[in-house]
Amino acid sequence: MQGQGNNAYVFPGVGLGVIASRAHTIIYDMFLAASRVLVAAVTEEDLSAGTVYSPLNRIRRVSRAIAVAVAEIAWEEGLAQEDRPKDIERTITELMYEPGY
Predict the structure, then answer these.
(1) For the chain: N or C, fewer Cβ within 10 A?
(2) H or E segment and range at residue 76
């Protein structure tokens, strides 16, 4: 998955955060927050194994964390058109697509 961090983690997380907050504008700080969350999700064990991204089995957790960070920025910056929920993580989890095969 080398080189696919934007497509696999960042864009889905940013999009979900924007949807959750109904942000009317996407700003640079949202992508900066997304990249910080993505970096923080990589463990020493991941690095020792030679990976630069969190493994795909943690993709939903990482995407949710990115969405929370993005939504928080939308509310902090007055970009959100949705009221801030009491439990942001739960609200975002409920918005996540659940693939069932």
Answers:
(1) C
(2) helix 59-76
